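Section 3.1: Structural characterization of target chains.
Under the original work plan, the team committed to producing a structural model for every single-chain target entering the pipeline before any wet-lab resources were allocated. The record below documents one such target. The sequence was received from the expression subgroup and is listed exactly as submitted; it comprises 226 residues.
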Amino acid sequence: MKITLTILSFAIMLCFSSCHKEVKSEKGGIDIISNVYFEASRGLERMQSFHISKMSYSNDNMIEIVPDRNFPEMSKQIYFIKDSLCYPLDSERKTAIFSEIVLKQKPIMVWKKKEGAVFSKEWIPNYRNRRKLPDTVLFGKQYKRFEINSPWNYTRFYIYPTDTILPYSLYRHAEKDYHGRLERIDSYNKKNDIFVTLQLIPRKNWDDTARELFEFDYFVTRSKNE
């Protein structure tokens, strides 16, 4: 009887794990925004906001625009990203053929890119010592949460339950564990009294610069194949 129950329990667990299927988002955009609060224990008046990255993607192709911190409406750098390879483009470039870029330009690994969104294969520090928090509603969306507390930092992580995965994630290993998308990290540095929020904001549409690049590449590629 015990053996039968064990087999049945294993079958149920296997069924649940196999039923969770991830859906890859084919088109859209991602914004990475950070707010930094100085002397946070005294209030949230001293704050600076940073638009770290504007990413647009079409299947496996991604265009990342790094806004200028002093003039956010201007682009500091543009990258063409495919898989784990990154190709810097001129900041004012509005036309590009992706297949030619891959052939002619020497790439860098996304892990070594020093501007814009951070691509990392590392785990969240102290992840094994995380503590589950009750779910919460933020900006009209329900999130799963967990926290990590250390002598020097206190951090909360917000994961939106979804089967749709994006071509970029802050910490993919946590998303796999919680079957969702990590969309916000709040961190308080206890020593320096600095509170930092990091938000991943998905969007359905490309930004204008990325649209021009994608549409030009599509037009030229289609013309060559006709």
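The longest helix spans residues 2-19.
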